[in-house]
Amino acid sequence: MTTRHPLPIGLIGAGRMGSFHAETLARRLPGVRLAAIADPAPGAARGLGDRLGGTTAYTEIAELLADPGIEAVVIATPARTHAGLVEAAARAGKAVYCEKPMAVTLDEADRAIAAAADAGVPLQVGFNRRYDTGFHAAHEKIRAGAIGTPQLLRSLTRDPKPADPGRIPPWTIFLETLIHDFDTLHHLNPGAAPVEVFAFADALVRPDFKDRGLLDTAVVTIRFDNGALATAEANFQAVYGYDVRGEVFGSAGMLTMGDIRRGHLTAYGPDGIAADCVTYDQDLFHDAYVAELADFTECVRTGRAPSVTGQDARAALSVALAAIESVTTGGPVRVGGIAA
Amino acid sequence: MTTRHPLPIGLIGAGRMGSFHAETLARRLPGVRLAAIADPAPGAARGLGDRLGGTTAYTEIAELLADPGIEAVVIATPARTHAGLVEAAARAGKAVYCEKPMAVTLDEADRAIAAAADAGVPLQVGFNRRYDTGFHAAHEKIRAGAIGTPQLLRSLTRDPKPADPGRIPPWTIFLETLIHDFDTLHHLNPGAAPVEVFAFADALVRPDFKDRGLLDTAVVTIRFDNGALATAEANFQAVYGYDVRGEVFGSAGMLTMGDIRRGHLTAYGPDGIAADCVTYDQDLFHDAYVAELADFTECVRTGRAPSVTGQDARAALSVALAAIESVTTGGPVRVGGIAA
Amino acid sequence: MTTRHPLPIGLIGAGRMGSFHAETLARRLPGVRLAAIADPAPGAARGLGDRLGGTTAYTEIAELLADPGIEAVVIATPARTHAGLVEAAARAGKAVYCEKPMAVTLDEADRAIAAAADAGVPLQVGFNRRYDTGFHAAHEKIRAGAIGTPQLLRSLTRDPKPADPGRIPPWTIFLETLIHDFDTLHHLNPGAAPVEVFAFADALVRPDFKDRGLLDTAVVTIRFDNGALATAEANFQAVYGYDVRGEVFGSAGMLTMGDIRRGHLTAYGPDGIAADCVTYDQDLFHDAYVAELADFTECVRTGRAPSVTGQDARAALSVALAAIESVTTGGPVRVGGIAA
Amino acid sequence: MTTRHPLPIGLIGAGRMGSFHAETLARRLPGVRLAAIADPAPGAARGLGDRLGGTTAYTEIAELLADPGIEAVVIATPARTHAGLVEAAARAGKAVYCEKPMAVTLDEADRAIAAAADAGVPLQVGFNRRYDTGFHAAHEKIRAGAIGTPQLLRSLTRDPKPADPGRIPPWTIFLETLIHDFDTLHHLNPGAAPVEVFAFADALVRPDFKDRGLLDTAVVTIRFDNGALATAEANFQAVYGYDVRGEVFGSAGMLTMGDIRRGHLTAYGPDGIAADCVTYDQDLFHDAYVAELADFTECVRTGRAPSVTGQDARAALSVALAAIESVTTGGPVRVGGIAA
């Protein structure tokens, strides 16, 4: 596939994440052109496109997919629509970058993966932490054997505040938040597959929404087939900021990742030592978001396979679904059929 | 009870922990006298006593318990003997400090607690981390509401290297190592009781001993009756040193504790930044070990009730036993009958 | 002055710093266009322009200054040429951003400042550390009184390795390196002026170049008119990386700034704790370089006065010249005529 | 010299520092006996001795020196009396430990050193930071070549609050506070001697006492004969606590020392990250104070020469006197005759 230069990309979804990706595509990536934006909300695509200059706006996603001037799409719509859009975009012959989670059922995931394979288009999934310099360097070191065999892992995500509980579907904490941690744990335990999952979860931040199935606090333990034991932890309201950390303990050492501290100013006064916390995810992972789209566009341009694949998305989803089942049944759940 | 001055204390057990306590009693605590040491191993009590000067040595523990010149005992024998010695010492009218675990069955624990109550003697248990300045200050802050209601807790213990696997009884990781973490989690979630436990454990450090029931790596998750979810984690071989850390995340903030770093020298060179790790537990908790014995002797002297009680030991044991049952059955286990 | 959109900017100097600014102007700043590049070195402007796409290239700086399509210039040539170019650019009616040092004599500085004033064009100087989030926040806090009156200040610069000693003019360490620290100390002690300077300097990195007047290690102490005592320190070869730090101690507290650590990955192994150092200045101050050009272009666009002025450059230069005189005479030197 | 066991030591001076040493001698050092205390203040020696139990009390220092039951003395009186007491104690045949500064003139220093040499008694000086684990390890690493040749050094002391200004003699900041830093800089630049000193000093904390010669803020720069440039910095009122830090930058790396942080509890809340500061010197250097007396008593017992000598005290004093002269004359001052 020969690609045009600059590469014309269509963005699907002009919400918070979509707007951020739009800016990256329009301004931060050389060799890329944000050619079109589609969003069913009236005026959303148009408004975003106008702010960034010279972008076609669609309210019908199908029109963007039918646009022959678009070579690749970035999907940043609500989670439940992802898999269907991956399928549609792949069938339309577009290279596909899809925000996490790529799918919310294994069937959906399989169809999306198959569609991309059938169409021969690259499919990359938005596990942006893999592109964060700290988590990335950890992966490299672990692969190089720097800490021996992983034995205990931890990944956690704490958001500064919950989204409007009325708009969060049930199981969001597993399917949209912890999905990152499940991917991180899989990625930082290279060559191993999760085999068993146990989860505790509760509505501690907003107990008033518990009867609607909204859970905002969870601890998931995972046993991998190389013996490693892992913990994933999430909470929707960390009053101190946005907290994403990782830890991998192995037979030959330990690595820790994560940066709660914002900036490098430290204050010392009568009350002791003080420093600021990171408060917003697009700040914490700003460079990682840019790096993952840069990597995606390079895959499109060079024909190289993406480094974060539909199979990776499926693996993380398998753990999320097992965790949901564990919460539902109250017992541990086997995870099946995940290739390491 | 009027006590003599200096307070005459008898030490039972002249092994590693006993030797450390002996030195504290002989040299670091004003108002205290190490009056006698008992250890069945020939020469052990005598050798230790000679090094410290002027201490009676017994090879029969019963003789020490019968010695009317002894007002209080410090029990630092192998774990399986603790509860029986607590009972015997209490019946002999001695104030009792007992190393953790105080007991390895709930029945034993109940008998030990009852014996001390019947005899009207103080009974304190060696959860030394409660006396570490960081963990202690965390407890004070949490009680004062500084982080609101605890929602997610973590406590971990990683030893630098395993004891001789041939000499470790099965379930040691739960009964002797994680017992500290179970107590920490209970202590840092004041007023709450554990209700459900799930554990994964394995022999990752010494897989060759797995068929003898020796487990060296474990992750335990605990649900408390205030909704808080906790994780306790242990491993017997951290190549970088002795790693004890805690984290309590609450509705109004987070506290972290633990000090892997030894000292305050930092080196910067072509390979980056380097610092030393703490490598030995008596170094990490040196001051805490002294503080707990100081607190114990003050209880004896003043009649004040100990701040780490037999009930605390029983609560931690309940979690340990539930974790063992969880590993055995493969499912979550309810914890019953623990007063907050 | 009404400005065109996007603002057409001409870059003078296509060396290391110029290339970095070129990329910022071409790609990272919305509302800006890198319209032309001038560099006397054959092919330098053309090569850089081609890499970035669609930029006019000049080998005669005068041609760029005569280009009516250029509204503002960024001067990134060798230090000794700065002041003359500021004058020429101002006379040509261009808004001027000039890399530090703006001048190497006070006369030059005065002429450059006067030229910009006469022409009514904004003149901004490249003290990029003022745009670093940590140093910037420190300034804000100090102005707000957070640490009371500054009493002891420190600023240091250590470069990873020296430039080719054969190509460094004498006094470079004061005029081009420590000039940053002199500005930082002035900026973090708001409202105060330096009154006396004493300097020690030596050739410790390359003693073989000492007889050619090349100094690579210096410590400068400065007394300010509010009593504050400050230290500026520089060295040309820090084997561990690029080290820029600041410290301000005041009557009500202390602030520290500076980030030797690169990233947030920490490794723990048998040799202790390890982390990486920052090794390259454009990495450390990447965002600050972008922010200062964004600020400059906003000044051009809005007519607002620059926040880092020719007077700031002159103040830092006064301290540099006093330090040079101190090294030459071996005694302390009074600094005259600097407005706070 | 054969010494008695436990070694009978006499303490001279029952003030703040003396009381601390008394407790160390009485309780923390095996093989040592606090045999007598002398203090001219009525009741001071008696009160302290009674608290510690069984110690002879003198109000005449001469009586203690004449006591044949005393083998060694610890001098912890006001600074101006030290040298005379060292002389007297040495003449009385006692091994001598003297708090810093050992002397406040070079003549005094020489007489004290000579007296100890003539009497053949060990003379150790209280530069306790050499016994702090961090500073000690830095010294070892530097001697082993870990950072190559030292090029830039820094040592600072900031006290939490000034002593009663009415009771501080002039030049205290140099003779009693910075004397520590001068020793640290000398010690961390092994084999090198200070050759030139320049000092700025002022009364910024208590300007109302400036006309009485009380200075509370100082920055001293020192040039060593190996080219290294050093800064010593002091202030009498750090509102955040007790701040002692060091930094040595060399041709092959850098070391930093110093621990402003108290404990290992970190709090994260809506206002960011918070931790406590060290606030009191006997806390910060508690272990170092004990270690130096342990080292001294070992010297007495074994006949080994002390590791912190009268010559070390003289070297630090030379720098202090040069700094005082620099403040007086306003210019740099040569330091003469210091053996490395």
Automatic annotation (TrEMBL), chains A, B, C, D:
Residues 135-255 form the GFO/IDH/MocA-like oxidoreductase domain. InterPro entries: Gfo/Idh/MocA-like_OxRdtase_N, GFO_IDH_MocA-like_dom, NAD(P)-bd_dom_sf. Residues 9-127 form the Gfo/Idh/MocA-like oxidoreductase N-terminal domain. Keywords: Oxidoreductase. It comes from the Bacteria. One of its GO terms (molecular function) is oxidoreductase activity. SUPFAM superfamilies: Glyceraldehyde-3-phosphate dehydrogenase-like, C-terminal domain (SSF55347), NAD(P)-binding Rossmann-fold domains (SSF51735). Belongs to the Gfo/Idh/MocA family. This is Dehydrogenase. The lineage of its organism: Bacteria, Bacillati, Actinomycetota, Actinomycetes, Kitasatosporales.
